[in-house]
Amino acid sequence: MSTLHLGPQRIVCLTEETTEWLYLLGQEQRIVGISGYTVRPRRARDEKPKVSAFLNAKIDKILALQPDCVFGFSDLQADIAASLIRAGVQVTVFNQRSVDEIFSMLFQVAAMVGCAEEGLARIDVMRLRLEAIRAEVTALVAAGKRRPKVFFEEWDEPHISGIRWVSELLGIAGGDDVFPELAVQSLGKDRIIAESAEIVARSPDIVIGSWCGKKFRPEKVAARAGWQDVPAVRDGQLFEIKSADILQPGPAALTDGVAQMHRIVTEWMKQHG
Questions:
Q1: How many whole angstroms separate alpha carbon 115 and alpha carbon 1?
Q2: Which of 69, 185, 195, 202 is 20 to 30 A from 91 in CA distance terms?
Q3: Mean pLDDT of the region 119-136
Q4: Domain extent for 262
Q5: pLDDT for 166-202, tens place per residue?
Q6: Crossing angle of helices 99-112/164-173, nearest 10°?
Q7: Domain end (from 52, 77, 95)
Q8: Domain finish residue from 45, 73, 95
Q9: Number of domains in the chain
Q10: Does the pLDDT of residue 2 top 50, yes or no?
Q11: Can you give the pLDDT at residue 270?
Q12: CA 97 to CA 163: how far, in whole Å?
């Protein structure tokens, strides 16, 4: 049975993850507007009008597109959602923070566009890949390899870390988050590390930076006062993962993002007993 006329037909996606997922499901014809930060898939930027940033949106432009549904993300887009709801638009705002919640969001979107079966099939593939990564790590540990301590830096000034799905994926990939306690905090302001010395004291073996779209500068990290004896700095273990690949709580993090973390971590593990 055709899925074309099931669910919303004119969707605006205020963040990238729902755009990428609808493209993967072959439902891109339903999308009438996207976030200006969208880079996955690349062709979406050429094919769809850009109607929002992250914290603000062009409400008049969205309304002119006559959407029958708008997908948003988190409390940070609550004001945008409220404006659209007052204008009579159906708005669904997801708030996925964990790996399981990302999978739940993906299923809900797939079901809304009549693609529940295909969505589940794709979700199963992603889950199996995560299990395969976990098994590879287990084998390395059984062979006597140590899991590295990893500091994931979401922003540099101030230092922010601990976003939950990243922390969980890092654990699957084989690394131990040096700030696991921050993963329970959903808001960025609650995940600020006030003193750089706190990071130094946790002695990370690897530093992975993903500065929310700003280019990661390993030389700036290495030059921080008091960081020269940090194992990650001393051994040149400073890496970037693009924010579009790991800070998007959707397909990207569950595929490319975790794969990059796994590659970084396992290369370290193979060199250390």
A1: 11
A2: 185
A3: 98
A4: 130-271
A5: 999 999 999 999 999 999 888 888 999 999 999 999 9
A6: 110
A7: 95
A8: 95
A9: 2
A10: no
A11: 93
A12: 8
Residue type, 273: G
Residue 97 and residue 106: Cα distance in Å, rounded?
13
Mean pLDDT of the chain: 95
Question: Is 74 within the bounds of a domain?
Answer: yes
The DSSP H or E segment spanning 11 is: strand 11-13
Same domain assignment for residues 147 and 55: no
Q: Which helix (H) or strand (E) holds 22?
A: helix 16-24
The pLDDT score that the predictor gives to residue 4 is 54
Query: What's the residue count for the chain?
Result: 273
Q: Is-contact 259 251, C-beta < 8 A?
A: no
What is the token pair recorded at 200? 């130094």
pLDDT digits (tens, 9 = 90+) for 48-93: 999 999 899 999 999 999 999 999 999 999 999 999 999 999 999 9
Task: Give domain status of residue 245, yes or no.
Answer: yes
Closest to 162 measured CA to CA, from 137, 109, 199: 199
CB 237 within 8 A of CB 175: no
Q: How would residue 5 be classed by pLDDT, with cut points 50, 70 and 90?
A: low
Question: Which residue is listed with tokens 């014809």?
Answer: 29
CA distances from 31 to 16, 137, 177, 211 (A): 12, 39, 37, 28
DSSP string, 125-141: HHHHHHHHHHHHHHHHH
